[in-house]
Amino acid sequence: MKIIEDGRAPNPRRVRVFLAEKGIEVPYEQIDLMALDHKKDDYTALNPLQRVPVLVLDDGTTLSETMAICRYFEAMQPEPPLMGRTALEQAVIEMWQRRMELNLFFCVAQTFRHLHPAMSGLEQPQVAEWGEANRPRALDTLALLDRQLGQGPYVAGDAYSVADITAMVAVDFMKPARIERPPELANLARWYDEVSARPSAKA
Questions:
Q1: Containing H/E element for 63?
Q2: Are 155 and 164 a contacting pair, CB within 8 Å?
Q3: More confident residue, 121 or 68
Q4: What is the Cα–Cα distance from 102 to 132, expressed in whole angstroms?
Q5: Beta strands in 122-171, from DSSP E residues, in sequence order
Q6: In the prediction, which pLDDT does 93 show?
Q7: Torsion over CA of 186, 166, 104 and 156, rounded to 10 degrees?
Q8: Listed range (21-30, 115-124, 183-192) with the worst mean pLDDT
Q9: Has residue 121 got a pLDDT over 90?
Q10: How many angstroms separate the CA atoms of 199 and 187, rounded?
Q11: Distances from the Cα of 199 to the Cα of 13, 42, 69, 152, 192, angstroms
């Protein structure tokens, strides 16, 4: 078993944090996205969408997509639960995970990919207007997240979950995307300091 990734990219980091919370160790193989390693035939055979990470199981089965990989490990090792125990917990975590992924992480990524000069070789074409359009969407979701965090310690309630992982990585991704975190979002700041202090955040 191994995970193929570019350790600088945010999606592989979500998997690493998830595995660190579980205490699961998996060997990693690095590729270089900036060198277009993910476009090569051998990697495309593993993931035709040419994205990282990819989990390669011992029997040769491959899994891509960050949440699919996390779900595999959640099923293999349910403790500690990062996707909920009861039907309601699982649904609430899934709801907030989707919100963080589609309305925060995605918007930050689009801002970065379409506005940062270093991405000009990977994002073809770069559409500056699209990048700028996603900046206020990310900020709107941060305000929503701040209100949610006023009701409980974590994104999806009382327990740390995969929704917190996605949100934390998205907030960190705001720095290279050049999106400033509004200082008045006090609940967000309290939460961010706490989740960033967890040992898994350094994975």
A1: strand 62-64
A2: yes
A3: 68
A4: 17
A5: none
A6: 98
A7: -60
A8: 115-124
A9: no
A10: 21
A11: 13, 34, 21, 21, 13
> What's the rounded mean pLDDT across residues 109-130?
94
Cβ neighbours of 98 (radius 10 Å): 13
- In terms of Cβ atoms closer than 10 Å to its own Cβ (0-12, 13-18, 19+), residue 60 is exposed
Conformation bin of residue 54: beta by default, left when phi > 0, alpha when psi is -120 to 50: beta
> Would you state the pLDDT for residue 125?
95
List of domains in the chain = 2-76 (3.40.30.10), 87-202 (1.20.1050.10)
Strand, coil or helix: what is 57? coil
pLDDT, residue 142, reads: 98
pLDDT tens digit sequence for 127-171: 999 999 999 999 999 999 999 999 999 999 999 999 999 999 999
Whether 150 and 187 have beta carbons less than 8 Å apart is answered as yes
Share of the chain residues as helix, strand and coil, in percent rounded to the nearest 5: 60, 5, 35
Mean local confidence (pLDDT), 46-73: 97
H helix or E strand, kind and range, residue 195? helix 186-196
The CA-CA-CA angle for residues 174, 20, 47, to 5°, reads 70
The conformation of residue 180, written as its DSSP 8-state character, comes to P
Let me know: does 195 contact 169? Beta carbons within 8 Å. Answer: no
Residue in the structure block whose two tokens are 């996603």:
134
